[in-house]
Amino acid sequence: RAGPGDDPLVVAFLREVVNLDYLYTTSQEHVILSDLTDDRLFDVDTATNEISPMLATSYQYVDDTTIDVTLRQGVRFHSGAAFTADDVVYTYNWVLAPDSGTRASGTVGRWLKSVEKLGPYQVRFHLKAVYPLALRDMARRIPIRRNGAYQVDGKGDRGALAVHPHALGPRPPRGPRPHAGQAPVGLGRRGRLGGPPPPRRR
Q1: Tens digit of pLDDT for each residue in 128-155?
Q2: Which of 169, 138, 136 is nearest to 50 (CA)?
Q3: What does the pLDDT average to over 156-178?
Q4: In DSSP terms, which residues pair with 58 in a beta bridge?
Q5: pLDDT, average across residues 29-44
Q6: Which residue has the higher pLDDT, 202 or 24?
Q7: How far apart are CA 52 and CA 200, in angstroms?
Q8: Which string of b and e fits 51-67 if b means at least 16 CB within 10 Å?
Q9: Are the CB atoms for 40 and 135 separated by under 8 Å?
């Protein structure tokens, strides 16, 4: 239900939302919330399978197994930190790390060899072999995280975003965190901070 006063949308789920981090869950509730709180390099139209830029502005195949991606400038995380190539490299390296245990590690690890930073807003993806669905996997499976988001007291922590969400997106989480018992998750309405908006999701 939505209220006319401050435009909230209140949603009830059958199951408790225990973590806002889509990299560590694939339940339907978390997929829905991830669409509201996370941004990826690309978006995919589920009706046509057309790929369009989201946090990226463009991409180029250097060769069959090398993809250069130019990133959108002026975007900020929910924490207020600026989005740069460092965040993309960190996110994909975390997913590729053997001990990260993300739900996307198996899928992405089959085709992605490494990611490198070419500049403040440009990254290069090195594929293990020719893989025509690379952009689709980037669009569907990998929300971008802030550089160092999973580091707590110098150690990797898979549950870090349950307490300190740093996902990208036009609707930042606010209010009580989902781990705090029965408290609901609030999604505030706020525009993207700087830069032209990406195409709206269908």
Answers
A1: 999 999 999 999 889 898 898 888 887 8
A2: 136
A3: 58
A4: 70
A5: 82
A6: 24
A7: 10
A8: bbbbbbbebeeeeebeb
A9: no
Number of C-beta neighbours around residue 107 at 10 A: 16
**C-alpha span between 178 and 198 (Å, rounded):** 28
Tokens representing 45 are: 């139209």
Do residues 48 and 64 make contact, with C-beta atoms less than 8 angstroms apart?
no
**CA–CA separation, 30 vs 26, rounded Å?**
7
What DSSP letter does each residue of the chain carry, written as one string?
Answer: -B-TTT--B----SS------GGG---HHHHHHHHHH---SEEE-TTT--EEESSEEEEEEEETTEEEEEEPSS-B-TTSPBP-HHHHHHHHHHHHSTTT--TTHHHHHTTEEEEEEEETTEEEEEESS--TTHHHHHHHH-----TTTTEETTEE-TTHHHHS----SSS-EESS-TTSTTPPPEE-----SSSPPPPPP-
How far apart are the C-alpha atoms of 123 and 88, rounded to whole Å?
A: 8
Q: How confident is the model at residue 128, as a pLDDT?
A: 97
Per-residue pLDDT, 154: 77
Query: pTM for the full model?
Result: 0.78
- Contacts of residue 18, defined as CB under 8 A and 6 or more positions apart, other chains included, come to 162, 178, 179
User: What's the rounded Cα separation, in Å, for the pair 20 and 173?
Assistant: 9
Look at residue 99 in the predicted model and tell me its pLDDT: 85
In terms of residues, how long is the chain?
202
Torsion angle of C-alpha atoms 88, 90, 92, 96, degrees rounded to 10? 170
Instruction: Round to whole Å and give the CA distance between 34 and 168.
Output: 10
